[in-house]
Request: fold
Amino acid sequence: MLEEMKDELNHDVKEFKNLKKQIKSLKKEVKEDEASDFKLLDGENKEDFVEALSNASDFVDSISDYYEALERQQLYCSAHNYNDLDDKLTKKVVKAKKKDLDITADTVKELIKHPVLSNLFLEVTLRCNAKCEHCGSSCGYKIPKDEISAEDLKKTLLEIHEHYGASNVFLTVTGGEPLMRKDLFDIMEYAVSLGFRWGMTTNGMLINKRIIDEYRRTNMESISISLDGLKETHESFRRVPGSFDKIMNAIDLLKDLETLKSLQITTVANKKNLDELEDIYQLLLEKGIKEWRVMCVDPIGRAYDNDGILLDKEGLIKMFEFIREKRLEGKMIVDYDCSHYLGLKYEQILRDHSFICGAGIFIGSILANGDICVCPNVRDSSLVQGNIKTDSFVDTWENKYEIFRKKRLTTNEKCKSCKSFKYCRGDSFHTWNYQENKPNMCMKDILCEQFVE
Reply:
């Protein structure tokens, strides 16, 4: 079956490459035609036809890129013998991976010089109707006295729109539980009126028909819902009885939301649910889910020193191999989270891109109290760059964030001497220990011989 898929994939790649050459050749012929009476059907002139060919060429490029990415994935997943780096296939895979990683490293260098704000997290509240064991923000029911106002958020969104263009910045609404904020859709209605696109992360428990109508009214495009096991496990982990059934109902309601382009389920793999991943996978297939993000518990927030849920080496490898197998099956888009450099064996196999921590180079955030920072998972107060109650977000983005760019705090002598530092760069900002100047989570230290450099 796998060989048939590979043959079909190779055929499609060749077909699109040939089509691309034909369009390029035709486009050249038309441009070189100097006939003043050059006309096409329906009165289209030469310029119209050239533009149409350009659009067709762009479309074919995007399809070709997609197929070539699939081709690379098949190649990467086909190599198993990383213990023998002299193996012919392994050599080919390692060479291809390093090429991709080098491109990513060059991209990071360019973004450090010229940051581009493309993703903005809006942490609209730290209130939450759950008390999850792993919560990186240690959220709860109480309303913080310093919670940011709708007016300050709107003012900042307008400023960002005027300087960068709303259509160039995607808003990810997060919390806490965003739906606990009563004026959320008033804020998002304003954001959409400026031209912003948006999505949200949620535990899914508050989604009902009224909320679906609000999603529709404010043109929400994407949503990620947390599901951390089958019924008993999920409800124990989230500490909310009845939450599992509410999520199942929310998924059914969201299927009819016309504005939704991405319905993703996110599972935090841990010691309590690792053996349920296959059952969760089958459940999601039955529910018609197309996207599933699987991530491990990171040692932050309530999970910082919780050995009862943090995965060890064997647990991580089991999760990685599970994701690899499901990606090869191709029945659903299964991705590992964006966090952590995984080494040559697992990079570009578990997700469609090489590791990159976008904190401060293309990712920014406004936290629940108005603080200007990066990913909401980065909770160290020393990294806060300003506050929208008193500071301009645009001025802060353009003139601060030096610790995420030039200084690069996530490094020490051990990291700098590591062969993988070029690609890892000290790993993710949210798991760096700034007091002890070392990573709280290093895949090389955890995976040992399974981490290939």
In short: Confidence is low (pLDDT under 50) at residues 34-43. The first helix runs from residue 2 to 32. The CA atoms of residues 136 and 301 lie 4 Å apart.
